[in-house]
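Interim report, section 4.2 (structural modelling).
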Amino acid sequence: MKFLVIALSTIPPPLYKSHLSSPRLLVPMSTDFLRSPTNILKAIFFNPPKTPKIQPLAMAACIHTSRAENSRTSSLSCDPNGSQIDDRVCNYIKYCRPNFSDLVSCVPNSENHSKSIRIPEDLGSFDPVQNQDDLWVRMKNEARSDILQEPILSNFYVNSILAHDSLESALANHLSVKLSNSGTLPSGTLFDLFLGVIAEDKEIIRAVKDDLRAVKERDPACISYVHCFLNFKGFLACQAHRVAHSLWSNGRKILALLIQNRVSEVFAVDIHPGADIGRGILLDHATGVVIGETAVIGNNVSILHNVTLGGTGKASGDRHPKLGDGVLIGAGTCVLGNVRIGDGAKIGAGSVVLKEVPARTTAVGNPARLVGGKENPIRLDKMPSLTMDHTSHISEWSDYVI
Amino acid sequence: MKFLVIALSTIPPPLYKSHLSSPRLLVPMSTDFLRSPTNILKAIFFNPPKTPKIQPLAMAACIHTSRAENSRTSSLSCDPNGSQIDDRVCNYIKYCRPNFSDLVSCVPNSENHSKSIRIPEDLGSFDPVQNQDDLWVRMKNEARSDILQEPILSNFYVNSILAHDSLESALANHLSVKLSNSGTLPSGTLFDLFLGVIAEDKEIIRAVKDDLRAVKERDPACISYVHCFLNFKGFLACQAHRVAHSLWSNGRKILALLIQNRVSEVFAVDIHPGADIGRGILLDHATGVVIGETAVIGNNVSILHNVTLGGTGKASGDRHPKLGDGVLIGAGTCVLGNVRIGDGAKIGAGSVVLKEVPARTTAVGNPARLVGGKENPIRLDKMPSLTMDHTSHISEWSDYVI
Amino acid sequence: MKFLVIALSTIPPPLYKSHLSSPRLLVPMSTDFLRSPTNILKAIFFNPPKTPKIQPLAMAACIHTSRAENSRTSSLSCDPNGSQIDDRVCNYIKYCRPNFSDLVSCVPNSENHSKSIRIPEDLGSFDPVQNQDDLWVRMKNEARSDILQEPILSNFYVNSILAHDSLESALANHLSVKLSNSGTLPSGTLFDLFLGVIAEDKEIIRAVKDDLRAVKERDPACISYVHCFLNFKGFLACQAHRVAHSLWSNGRKILALLIQNRVSEVFAVDIHPGADIGRGILLDHATGVVIGETAVIGNNVSILHNVTLGGTGKASGDRHPKLGDGVLIGAGTCVLGNVRIGDGAKIGAGSVVLKEVPARTTAVGNPARLVGGKENPIRLDKMPSLTMDHTSHISEWSDYVI
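Predicted structure of the assembly:
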């Protein structure tokens, strides 16, 4: 039977996290760490795993070895495609250029190498049906499927998803890699911070899962949970905000504001950590979104890019919009001041809203008007944030003359 | 008495800058440099400080040592909270994971280590009252206060603020770290460039200080000068523009345009280096701001995010807006062409302005109209850029019918 | 005669690419690689060039040496300014601080050093007239001219332009440096990917050249092709999209979506890889542009920043706008739904368009109206995307009352 032997220098360190006894001795997941093969070796041998549950996949040489030598007892090893997948990854290795890390490898990559580590057999083995309702299990399955389609991204998927034992850890890692700044904010520091906050504030991970489902459900361009998790900057900005909001609420304002800044730089989404945001949120495209300190956003809200929930005046205090549940706000819209947008209301793209919008009505234009008129506005019978219907109001919009 | 002994490998190099005799021998402040403990040691011993005024704070072990061993004669050592602060930082160290730099330390961290360096006693000692009017002194005090609240950010604050002997140096460093691009634009090169320009063109630092005061005064979300300095990308984009504009005015167009590009990528703020911008500027949130080559902006102007001061046509020449003093422009507004916006004028959010707006009037809408009418517009009696009042005009805005 | 001797550690590795026999042995162009002088030496001596055509320019010491010692036979060596240029670069070296890479150089920089490499004599020698119509030759000439103006950027220009033997290679490199993420997406991997796609899909490089000409022709702020190539994030985002679209069309959706995400983070431009974009495109300023999956854009189109070509509803399928040839769309405009914008149509800044716009007409406002009226709209006689005239319609726009 074939196995993959990978050069130790290519092993992503997060993988070993779960095998270390003390959480304080975790190997840092920062990219700096990855640059030193010595550090990686140290990390491995410091507290070697006795019964490793997962094994790393990385760009590596493909050799034959005896399975008996290091047999595994995995409940997931029933996958009949196991060896086929190994072959595919092997083929991929032949035509892919090695990474930099391979070039500096200090570990000879031979059949005699006793520290050879095999890739997980369950790379392509999907989890049993009984776990299918678990979002994290689905995401790992999606990640395995993506690797089969794009072996070139194996390292990326292992580091970002498969090396983690929980959605919490994967999220803390992904955010810390995105928001770190070499030289000022090391990703290791951010990872510890994020993981600590997410572990403590259980509301966050509930909201994260609802957000993942919201994006997958409402955005036709979202092809999988893992696609949203890895690639949607609106999703990531929202989760970073949840951490910052938790810090802010616990009096750690300096840190919260620093996270706000990094999110604004990296994702071009500027959410004040004081803003109170519900669950099941879709920030679609997200570039240019600005949400002020005293804004409140209900559950199941969809907000397009370039939307401002802004204040007015230089006085502090309660000065930003309050959005009910199920609200949809189109691209490029400004809602300014401490005004209420009622449950299930819809605001068209490019609108400027300075007054209250009643529940289940549609406001459009600059300045915004209620479709159907102020006195007797047309009532929506579906939740606009869920239908994502931005344009059906135009048949009611008498000014539209093209 | 307790002192902190820090591993030399964690010392941020900028600290030693002021002790080196020749400015050409400064250790580079680039992040690359920080990755090599050898370089840091070299920098320290090349020209060791005789009577160090400040000492680095970094993540470190906490040990007891005799004060007499290495006594300091600081005018700021009267702070009665000194030892209390040390304790706090020590406590922090116990629960904080070390950085990568600690792991690669080549200096044993023990009581016998003769090169032990103590943290500054004046970490929490605020400067005497007579200096309180100096903005830079206030910023350093704010930085010390922030470290006490968030010891996890000690390195960040030391590198960004406390290690510098002037606002000029701190600004050049912070901008260079933000705008550098590993592999193409080293932060060391940018630092030298920025510092050189700021040192030569004295108008820049005057404007920087006015901008800091403007943000602190007008933005209720700004909690301190140092918060603005470290976190407000609109502020940083504006200061990078000031450097680029100085280069542009001195014929160094290639460099100026490169800075424009990096600012556009990193902060999503695109200001042509030819634009002439006054002092006391607030670019709030700043994402999506675009300011063209021949635009002129007066003093004490406030501009929200997604504002365009754009040209028209493909002809070169004077083709962009001219803003007077005290103008306020709301989010998402386009002002296009070589039109004048008079002193103290206000333009509402989401407006499109293609014609002159008289002084102290309010223009709103798409296309923009003058509040009160073209013939007899209502005159503002307060400077809108200072009040930041975006919405009071709506009571005069007859079209607004919600 | 004078020559420049450069420290080997400062040689950008891409330079040697063309001298290596096997494409699989290319030295990676990632920034990681550049950090190791050993790797660079390895790369050089692995397969030393016999008759080097170009030689690197980098920050270096300036010494006298005999030309006969290592004579060159270049068809371009007739440049009479050769030695003058060397002097200028030498002078520059005296006042420029060395890079980090110089500090870690393991190669002594002396006259006796047998591996001395001279800078190319043709640094300032412009190519003969017969090649002037070749865009890539012009770009290299522009790069040489820029280096003379700003020697501090020598490394940047060599790495980005002069070290490459084709526009394809330079583009793949520049995009990979911009879009890489240390720790997750190595620039070497991206470079291989981009170069492979561009080499295979010949339409891409044709479109790239048309885009370069479009930007240079239509944007008065663009001073040269190389200025556009290096600095215009709209141009770069568009080219990254062309690669992503090619991958998407070949079923490599995972990779295509990952590139979309990185472009959205790095350039704040979010183009779905499914979008079909013609040639001769200008994305001016580009921040906040969002283009949906089923959007189609014709040739010679100009789109300003913050423009949305968006969908509506959560149903998948054909749901985004279709733009004809020669369309101009002003800043901050939303076009939503599967509507057609006819050839040569113009849409004013800040407009919201939900219906078809006939060819050669102008639509402005929120909601958009046709200038001249729906029944008999005024016909444009010039292509608006080429004139870039955003504002002449206002004389026809009766609502504009300021």
